[in-house]
Amino acid sequence: MKAFHAFCVVLLIFGSVSEAKFDDFEDEEDIVEYDDNDFAEFEDITEDSVTESPQRVITTEDDEDETTVELEGQDESQEGDFEDADTQEGDTESEPYDDEEFEGYEDKPDTSSSKNKDPITIVDVPAHLQNSWESYYLEILMVTGLLAYIMNYIIGKNKNSRLAQAWFNTHRELLESNFTLVGDDGTNKEATSTGKLNQENEHIYNLWCSGRVCCEGMLIQLRFLKRQDLLNVLARMMRPVSDQVQKVTMNDEDMDTYVFAVGTRKALVRLQKEMQDLSEFCSDKPKSGAKYGLPDSLAILSEMGEVTEGMMDTKMVHFLTHYADKIESVHFSDQFSGPKIMQEEGQPLKLPDTKRTLLFTFNVPGSGNTYPKDMEALLPLMNMVIYSIDKAKKFRLNREGKQKADKNRARVEENFLKLTHVQRQEAAQSRREEKKRAEKERIMNEEDPEKQRRLEEAALRREQKKLEKKQMKMKQIKVKAM
Amino acid sequence: MSANNMSDPRRPNKVLRYKPPPSECNPALDDPTPDYMNLLGMIFSMCGLMLKWCAWVAVYCSFISFANSRSSEDTKQMMSSFMLSISAVVMSYLQNPQPMTPPW
C-alpha cells in the first residue's frame, strides 16, 4: 500500500513537470515519446533515441541553462551525449528542430556547404569611421612635406647669403681700389658707397660700382642656384648646374667699334641665337681658339679677324687658358642692346638703343656644391675684368678694320629699315589720315558758314598743291630713269 | 694729388648712380615662376573646395611662389595667396572631416 502511494506521488510530480514542458510543444506526437527535457524536440523518434533518452533526461536536466548558448564549458560527458544526438539527428534531417541552438555542432558538414553558397566576408571598418590619427596619414605626410620645404628654404637662403658675403669680402679690396662708388641701390640722395650687396632675390645679389677711368660703371650680379626652393634642389640632382657671376661694364664712348665674344662652344651658340648684336654682326659659327693657344673647350665669335688678333694678346690668352674651367663667356660689343626682343606685332619700328658693353659670365667652381672658400678662386677673374676694361679703351682698329666695321653697321641699319619699310609706311599713312580727319572735324564744327567755306577752300588748295608736287616728282624720276 | 695719381684708376667725378634695369625691356629674363605659381595656387584653391588634395596643392603652390618671388614684389599678394590656400584647406576639412583618400 505504501509503495503504491509513493509511486503515485512520484507519478504526479513527473506529470506536473511534464505538463509544464508540454505547453512548449505544439506537436501532436505521442507525449510518452517526449522526454522531460529541453532537447526533447530535437530528438529522433526512433528506438535508439527512446532507449537512450532516459540517459539524456538524467544528464541534460542539469544543464538547461547552457543549452541555448554556445557549447562551451560543458562536461565531456555532455558532449559525448550531444555527439550521439548529432549522429542521430544527422540521420533524420526531416525532423524539425531549432538550428540556432546547435551552431557549430550538427552543422559541421552543413556549414562547409553553406559557406560555399554564401561566403561571409569580413570587412574592415572604413577609415573615416575609425577614430585614430593613423587614418590621417596623408595629411600628416602633407604637413611633413611642407615642414621639409620650409626647412630647406631657411637653409638654402642662409647658404646663398653666406656665399654672397664671402664673395664680397674676397673682392671688396680690389673693387674699392678701382672704383670710387662700391655699392649703390639708387635710392640715396647722395652717391655714397653702401658697401654692401643689393639683394634682389633669395638667390640673386647685385652690386653697382662706378667712378673709374675708362668705365662708366660696372654691375655685378651673383646668380646663385635656387637653393631656397626644394623643387629646384630636387631638379638639380638630375642635372648639376653652377652658380654664376655676371659682370656688365659700360665702357666709355672712347671704345672702338667692334663685336667680339669668346667662351665655351655651347654658351656661344646660345648667345649667337639670343643676342641681337652677335646674331647680326657675327654670322659665322664659333671658331676654335687653338690657333691662339686657347684650350679646346673655348671658341671665338668675332666680327672680323683683326679684332680677334687684337684681343688675343699674351695676357688675355694667359687668363683664358688658366681659368678656362671657370669662364662661361666673355662678350665685348659696341652695339650691345640685350637679347632679341620678340614683339607680337612684328618688327619694332625703331632700332633698339645700343651701349658699349663688356660682359663676363663666370662659373663658380663646385658645380652647385659651393663653399664660401671657393669664392677666392674668382679673384683672378676680377683682375681679368679690370685688364679688359683698360684694354677695350686702348684697342684701336686700323683704317681697314674701321671701314669694314662702319660698312657692317650701315648694312645692318639698312636691312632693318627695309624690313620695317612696310610698317613705317603704314604708320605714316595712318598719321596722315588722322590729320585729315581732325581737319575735317574742325571745319564741320565751325559754326560760321563763311569761315567754314574759307577753311574748306584752304584745305582744297593744300591738296591740289600736294598733287602737283607728286606729279613733279614722278616726272623727275621718269626723266632720271630715261 | 694722390687721388689723381696715375696708378689710381678711380675718378670721383665720373660717378654714375645705379639705375635698376626696367623689367619691360627684358621680359624673357625675368623668371615667370612666382607668377605662374600664384595663378596655379589660386586655381587650386578654388578647386580645393571640392577636392581635398587640390587645397593641399594650392598651399604648396603658394609656398613655391613665395620662395621664388623677387624682393621688389608686393608682399600683400603673397600673403593673400597664402591665406586663400590655407582657408581652402580649412574649409574643405570643416565641410568633410574625413581623412583624404589617395587617388590610387
TrEMBL record, chain A:
Main location per the UniProt record: endoplasmic reticulum
GO biological process: endoplasmic reticulum calcium ion homeostasis; ER overload response; ERAD pathway; multi-pass transmembrane protein insertion into ER membrane; post-embryonic development
Sample GO molecular function, one term: calcium ion binding
InterPro entries in the record: CCDC47
Biased composition (Acidic residues): 60-104
GO cellular component: multi-pass translocon complex; protein folding chaperone complex; rough endoplasmic reticulum membrane
One Pfam family of this chain: CCDC47
Transmembrane keyword on record: yes
Biased composition (Basic and acidic residues): 105-118, 429-471
Region (Disordered): 42-119, 423-482
Annotated Basic residues bias: 472-482
UniProt keyword list: Membrane, Signal, Transmembrane, Transmembrane helix
UniProt topology in membrane: Single-pass type I membrane protein
Signal peptide segment: 1-20
Source species, domain of life: Eukaryota
UniProt keyword annotation of Metal-binding present: no
Subcellular location: Rough endoplasmic reticulum membrane
Function description: Component of the multi-pass translocon (MPT) complex that mediates insertion of multi-pass membrane proteins into the lipid bilayer of membranes. The MPT complex takes over after the SEC61 complex: following membrane insertion of the first few transmembrane segments of proteins by the SEC61 complex, the MPT complex occludes the lateral gate of the SEC61 complex to promote insertion of subsequent transmembrane regions.
Family membership noted in the UniProt record: Belongs to the CCDC47 family.
PANTHER family assigned: ADIPOCYTE-SPECIFIC PROTEIN 4-RELATED, PAT COMPLEX SUBUNIT CCDC47
UniProt protein name: PAT complex subunit CCDC47
TrEMBL record, chain B:
Protein name, entry field: PAT complex subunit Asterix
Any GO molecular function: protein folding chaperone
Biological-process GO terms, alphabetical: protein insertion into ER membrane
Compartments where found: Membrane
Ranges that cross the membrane: 39-66
Functional note: Component of the multi-pass translocon (MPT) complex that mediates insertion of multi-pass membrane proteins into the lipid bilayer of membranes. The MPT complex takes over after the SEC61 complex: following membrane insertion of the first few transmembrane segments of proteins by the SEC61 complex, the MPT complex occludes the lateral gate of the SEC61 complex to promote insertion of subsequent transmembrane regions.
Gene name as annotated: WDR83OS
Region Disordered, annotated ranges: 1-29
Organism of origin: Phocoena sinus
